[in-house]
Design brief:
The protein is of the alpha/beta class. The chain has 24 helices and eleven strands. Among the domains are: 53 residues; 184 residues, no CATH class; 232 residues, Rossmann fold (3-Layer(aba) Sandwich), CATH 3.40.50. The strands form two sheets. A seven-stranded parallel sheet has the order 5-11-10-6-9-7-8, sandwiched between helices.
Amino acid sequence: YKWVIIIIPTVCLIFTYFFVKTLPKTYKSEALISTGVTQQFQQTVGVNEQSMDNFKLNQQFGNILEIMRSKRLLNGLSYKLIIHDLKDEAKAFKPYGALVKELSNAEKQEAVNTYTTMLITGSTISIADNEGKIKLYDILNESGYDAQSLLKNLLMYRNGESDFIKVEYSSTNSALSAYVVNNLSNDFIDYYLDLGLSSQRKSVAFLDTLVREKQTELSNKNQELSSSSVKVAEAMVSQKALEINQQRLIDIQTQRAQILRNISAIEGSITEVNRKLSGAGGYIKQDNGGENAMIINIDDQIATANQQYSNSNFKREFKDKIDSLQKIKLRYITSNSGSTNSTVIKQELINQKIKLETDLASAQSSLSTTEKQLSVISMQSGSGDGLLSVRTNNQEVMLKKADLASKEYNDAQALFEQNNIYAKTMPRMTLAEPGLPGPAEPSKNMLYLGFSGVSGLLTVLLALFISFILNPKISTAAQLQNITQQRILGSLNMIADKNKDLRDIWKNTDDIKDYSTYKDLLRSLRFELCEELVGDNKVLGITSLSESEGKTFLANSLAYAMAMMGKNVLLICDNESDLLSVLTNKSTAQKQKFDNEQKFESFLVRKEIQIEDKITILKTNPANNSLLEVMDGKSLLAGFGVLKETFDLIVIDIDSSHDMFKVKEWLMFCDKFISVFEAGNNIKSEDQSFIEYLAKQKNYLGWVLNKTKLVEA
């Protein structure tokens, strides 16, 4: 991968170098606009005695910047630029495009007139303007003067926390850059001023109308309130008179009740006097009957006179008659002063009766007068409480409406005055610093080159990282154990030589590092296996995930390593193996002869085998796909029994997981078996079933990581 990491960034650098070499120089011009917005906010804060609202201030600047980016202003700038170029090709900011070159002088003038009209009227250009003979929209786009093209190189922002807005434009022409920032700034100042004045005029007119309406409404409410106050006052006077009449009515009713009590008392007294005059109780004796009769007659006349006096509404003539009769009665009484006590008592009773009757007549007359007064006052006393209450409630409602109208009028008046103040103090924008043609901007070629190289390097690293994530490679025993969750018996390094001779490996005395390392690792693996292959466990099977994992060379290496310990080793392998020479060290002809004599299938039939020096090889016939199809299971077990009695160790080179049925058949006769995995490969999803199968086998020892790369010191 190191060459990929080196080559790709280098190619990016070379390509970028030739690309930026042809880039034109860039000229930038800057203009500064003084807005006056901050000053206006400070004045408002001073008047209202409040803190400055930075949010509203930033919002105001945001609105200003959006207006500057509006199509209305940018289209006006586009028209000015194209008109400038079309009028004089020699003074044009940019070379004419193909569409402009095709135009005649008359057509150019017509285009200038059309663009001028659109500039004056503030029209917006669109694709519909291509319908005529002159493609106005396409000409503008071809020249790079359309709104979108201008915005790409146009930068407008508030300069820090100041009151200024900076306008920057970059192009390949210094005069063009200055022209753009100056015209855009001036157009914006004029447009913003017109917009503000128009808005102020509309606001003043609206608020003036509103103030007049509120004033009229307030006047009407006050007039209604005044009228209601008069009616309420009248109702209050009527209510006062009603209260007086009601009080008089109460007094007269009290007086009537007192008169009725007096009448009742007088009538009771008269009844008692009459009882005594009739002789009850022994108060009066029957003597001087004539005088008494006369006195009684006079009393009757007095009573009649009293009744007449009362009925005549107390006329004077009846009063005189009563007085005359009283005098006559007094003479009779005086003339009879010598009469007995009975007569005197009777006369006193008669006098008392006369007085009581007079009082009764007077009381009855007073009662009649009182009842007449009571009738008159009752007719005058009506129910005025409800009317006064309704009128009072109406006045309260009108008072609230009048207060509301007054508040609305004051608010409208305040807005009107505030608007007038704002109109007088409205910020006046000015072009504080116009844009000027300047020198070319510093070249950014080195920046582009650096960015290109770094981006190329990062792209390569990212691609390698993604590749590693999607296809993880297993290079260490720890990785293999982490993925398989199974035991790792050991690892063997890769030997790059094509002619792998085990004799050379074992005879090496640290001259070749690959050989010495391989020999040490193989000894370590041999030790692990010897710990397991004890007693009757003599058959060791070796399998792998695929054919290219190096299991055949490992089988040969283990057989050789075991033979170095003085053990008689039998190696059962495929007939197609080309590594037998590393064990037998025989010529091809000798090998062929040996192969014909030492066949695994022949041994199974004859149960005879020729033992070689320490290592004996039995090769299987690849034509036989299934071991169980060669001979039945009992015969196979008997054959392996003979081999186990003959040899100290039997190493079987079993097929890979691609021939799963062969693996299962051979494992039936293996006491222990191991699996080989090549470093640098990855475990695919289809390999998981084989790994799970291995884990379920009781005679499975673990993995051997093969072909690992040595780390250079």
